[in-house]
Amino acid sequence: MISDHFYTSDKITDHMDAVKSRTGEIMYLIKGSVGGTFTKYAVMDENSNFYGKDKVPTATGSLEEFVDMLVAIYENYRDTVCG
User: Fold this and answer.
1) pLDDT in tens, 11-37
2) How many angstroms from the chain centroid is the CA of residue 31?
3) Alpha helices of 24-80 — where are they, by DSSP H?
4) How far apart are CA 36 and CA 6, in angstroms?
5) Which of 4-8, 11-15, 73-77 has the highest mean pLDDT?
6) Strand stretches in 1-83, DSSP E
7) pLDDT tens digit sequence for 28-72
8) CB neighbours of 49 closer than 8 A, spacing ≥ 6?
9) What DSSP element (H or E) covers 15?
10) Cα separation values, 25 from 11, 19, 33, 54, Å
């Protein structure tokens, strides 16, 4: 079931915390799509319910910049996501 209500990155964590407090422990994942212009990502739970999506400009300067971009996305949710 895909929710009609999507949140950008600044509201995703608050929304996930509210769901967790209502339902108990939930495993969250970050799914992504890397494109030439933007890297789009979504936060979803283990049952494929979406809790938010956002995008960032794809780092194309070097491999190090690209990895830093991915790490920055992960760091926003490191205490919440699994893996």
Assistant:
1) 555 655 555 545 566 778 888 899 999
2) 7
3) 63-75
4) 23
5) 73-77
6) 28-34, 38-45, 50-57
7) 888 889 999 999 999 888 788 888 889 999 999 999 999 999 999
8) 1, 2, 3
9) helix 9-23
10) 19, 9, 27, 24
Question: What are the CA-CA distances from residue 83 to residues 37, 40, 77 (Å)?
Answer: 26, 19, 10
CA 54 to chain centre: 7
**Residue whose token pair is 């079931």:** 1
Cα dihedral across residues 18, 23, 26, 30: positive or negative: negative
Tell the residue number behind the tokens 């996501």, with chain if given: 81
For residue 17, the model assigns a pLDDT of 58
Q: What gap in Å lies between CA 34 and CA 55, rounded to an integer?
A: 10
Fill in the amino acid letter for 58.
T
